[in-house]
Amino acid sequence: MNKYKKWYKAITESTNDREGYTERHHIIPRSLGGGEESENLIRLTAREHFICHWLLSKMYEKGSPERASMIFALRMMRSDNTGKRYKTKITSRVYENLKVEYSAIASKRFTGKGNGFYNGKHTDDAKQRISKANTGDKNGSKQPLARKKISESKKGKTRPSFSKEWTDNMSKAHSGENNSMFGRKQSESAKQLIREKATGRTQSAETIKKKADAIRGSKRKKKLCPHCQREIAVNGYARWHGQNCKMKGRKK
Fold first, then answer.
1. Strands (E), 33-174
2. Cβ–Cβ < 8 Å for 12, 42
3. Are the CB atoms for 105 and 72 separated by under 8 Å?
4. Looking at the predicted structure, is the pLDDT value of residue 145 above 80?
5. Which of 69, 92, 114 is the endpoint of a domain?
6. Distance between CA atoms of residues 70 and 29, nearest Å
7. Could you say which of 62, 96, 114 is where a domain stops?
8. Which pLDDT score is estimated for 225?
9. Using the 8-state DSSP alphabet, how is residue 67 labeled?
């Protein structure tokens, strides 16, 4: 019997009278085959209850299904912060170890065949319900007009420009091997799907008006082309000037 089992047995076999707030505990957890019979039940203080589940997670070897079950149970206890439950202090090191192990167990349990939707497909009826639920004012929230409220709350506010350090880091994070399409090519069927989706796409009159109102009265930034010596609006610079300037390489 390891030390964790000894400590667990000492608590669950204790006959101390526990006054005040107590919780019911299954000596052999239900997930491990324990039942609801009286000899398998005991009243513990909240602190004792948490310690017992902590000990249960220690009693079994890493990688075993019993330990995985106890890690899940312990995590659920820590996630409940209502009332008088589980205010027991827990060190950052213990918390980190629990989270790392829980993450590995959850990943293994719900990946591949462990995923409840493995090899599953939505029916056309289900797809229609999902589409309807995410269309219009309900999109992103269960409250009607939520998107409109968010939009109104941001009117008149200007987002500060991103720093050069931030843009450089973003560029680095998605360049070369970090890019999800690095070393890959779109298949012809994928290109065709993209082409069909984009063909004939038009913006509504309302969208066009909003964009026009947003830039009306503002001056577009300009950039000097080193080849033709013209100041060009930045939104068209890359396409017609710079490296693509028709004057590039010509003698001035």
1. 41-44
2. yes
3. yes
4. no
5. 114
6. 9
7. 114
8. 92
9. H
